[in-house]
Specification:
Strand order of the largest sheet of chain B: 8-1-2-9-10
Shape of chain B: globular
Shape of chain C: extended
Largest interface: A-C, 18 and 23 residues
CATH superfamily of chain C: Aminohydrolase, N-terminal nucleophile (Ntn) domain
Number of domains of chain C: 1
Strand content of chain B: 15-25%
CATH class of chain C: Alpha Beta
CATH topology of chain C: Glutamine Phosphoribosylpyrophosphate, subunit 1, domain 1
Oligomer: heterotrimer
Distance between the termini of chain C: 100 Å
Helix content of chain B: 25-40%
CATH topology of chain B: Glutamine Phosphoribosylpyrophosphate, subunit 1, domain 1
Number of helices of chain B: 7
Chains: A alpha+beta, B alpha+beta, C alpha+beta
Helix content of chain C: 25-40%
Order of helices and strands of chain C: HHEEEEEEEHHEEEEHHHEE
Number of domains of chain B: 1
Distance between the termini of chain B: 19 Å
CATH architecture of chain C: 4-Layer Sandwich
Amino acid sequence: MNGIQVDMNRLKKGEVSLGTSIMAVTFKDGVILGADSRTTTGAYIANRVTDKLTRIHDKVWCCRSGSAADTQAVADIVQYYLDLYTTQYGTPSTKTAASVFKTLCYENKDNLTAGIIVAGFDDDTKKGEVYSVPLGGSIHKQKYAIAGSGSTFIYGYCDKNFKEDMTKDETIHFIKHSLSQAIKWDGSSGGVIRMVILTESGVERLIFYPDEYENL
Amino acid sequence: MTSIGTGYDLSNSVFSPDGRNFQVEYAVKAVENGATSIGIKCDDGVVFAVEKIVTSKLLVPKRNVKIQGIDRHIGCVYSGLIPDGRHFVNRGREEASNFKKLYSNAIPIPAFADRIGQYVQAHTLYNSVRPFGVTAIFGGIDENGPHLYMLEPSGTYWGYKGAATGKGRQTAKAELEKVIDQNSEGFSARDAVKQAAKIIYMAHEDNKEKDFELEISWCSKSETNGLHKFVEGELFDEAVEYAKKEIAGDEDSDSDNAMSSDDEDAGPDVATTTETPATEGNADRDGDIEIE
Amino acid sequence: MNHDPFSWGRPSDETYGAYNNEIAHAPSFPKMNTQQPIVTGTSVISMKYNNGVIIAADNLGSYGSLLRFTDIERLIPVGKNTIVGISGDISDMQHIEHLLEEIETENQYDNSFADNEESLQPSYVFEYLANVMYSRRSKMNPLWNALIVAGVEDNKPFLRYVNLLGVTYSSPTLATGFGAHLAVPLLRRVIDREEDIAKTDLQTAKTTILEAMKVLYYRDARSSRKFSLAIIDNDQGLIFEKDLQVEKMAWNFAKDIRGYGTQKV
């Protein structure tokens, strides 16, 4: 085995990567997802206005990090699974959605570079939920989750400033400040900050431009 | 029947000219001769009961269990060919296990009914297989509450408040209707167990010459924490005692229960008031059940 | 004409020679399944005592040197008298959790005694896991873990280890990973040989395990202060203690340390 070395966890040459700052936070009325918008190939920014917040189901969304190709493929497959699930059994729970992500990421771990946060709002329990599915394909239910290359810079900030059951404005404030710091220190993160808010009243999108978040 | 000898009953995948699948109808016959099985839905769960005819004195009492668990929250009982039922349950277990592996949740019972229903239906389509010789009653509790289903050899399944199949189904259904009507305000799992025991004893009245054993299981939020378990010990004895007492009292009082006795095979009886329309199709003069 | 539908649409043998399956089915690249652990759990430590076993593991899931997840439970109960302690890759640990849940469900099938005399015993669980671990390494696709199965069987303590290579062994004191180097010598100060088990009571054993967890927290850079501990006692059954913390640490001596040798101030 020593003759051939393949390390699939490193990006293949020239592959587009989401060297990212992403997060999802549960709050009083549901859950908010947040992400930067930078996609790179090496040091070149392939897309500066990327949308890394992806719909999987009406009120189950995900934040993608890692290989753009891999995470798009996985998200598309999960979306298909959940569509099928909906026609057969009704609305899937966030847990079920996260479990499908996990199954795909775990069983294909040798060939994937995908770190995904799954976040959703459950209309029955009126609660937001966040699941983190990191590289190896494990699954972790969390109050809030951060991921991507930029997240390493904000572990301390987030741990100190997160509170349970925040209001919508507090949560937006928290995410904006967190991602602002992540973007500031991570060269692979940048562009605009996108957010998606999942609550009982539906789905809402927010966007914040550099002039607004850079000097908070 | 005119169709006898025409050969339309020899293959599963061939319709008769009047649009019937005889193999399925014969499978129903196999069920009709089987021991009585029932299922009752109560407030927070379901109860299953089955009459176990003792076919040999050499059989060890209380062993050779008939009711089976599919997942931890789903129970199943069936009348007809026992080995077919065993295979049915094994398939059900695979479905439940596969669902849980992918979705991290126990399979919702309607979803389970749908999957296993398709499997049974597929056995009416191919020349290389025969239909299942069982009618299965299964159910349990999931996040949406209690569910009870009955699945026939054709692959037809409906949800029920109470279901009965096998030899004593006429008596059992009549009694189920009564019991469920009486308990429409609220039906505890414990009460349902007692009623289930009574119904099996009553259904056995027409088959009195044979010894039988009673088997009861349940699946209740309050009593078994949502798991499918056998009813044992005190409660079981209590239920049997209640059943025996009721039977003894019934014997001389009302005679209308005896109505559907002895001639189980006679078709015309099926159309009596005891029949739930959705359960089986109407019967024609010759006693052949029409599958919807 | 060749009437076998299988050969329709294929190059005819007369023209092209026999169909070479060897080539046709060869993948373009060897299938490589050996991976690397991503999110990992550190040591599991355990020991027997005169009336059962104790097992402990911390609640950390490390992502390289990043202490990423702080609330991971690595002691998995199976039935009433077995605990499986898992170290190594967390995604594989979750897969093992699923397997254990599956065998528990399967044991219930058609088994009226599944809750009593035919319930899963530690040795059954261990033998199953050892088979899984060995078969996966033989497929060149190991589950990246080291496991300790602890429990009480036939009123006697049971303790056995298996790892990603399928290697298994038993001992009155057992630990995985860092614990095998740091904790086992400490545990052996109390139980060095089989006969010492009978001389060790629960209290002594528990103190020893807590002390070992403290040393691991001192010296294992991938460990956390929070941990879980489980006792399977022959009389009391399973006692599962969660949200424990390493207590009574010694740090005060640090104030007397100046420089690294000759310095006095």
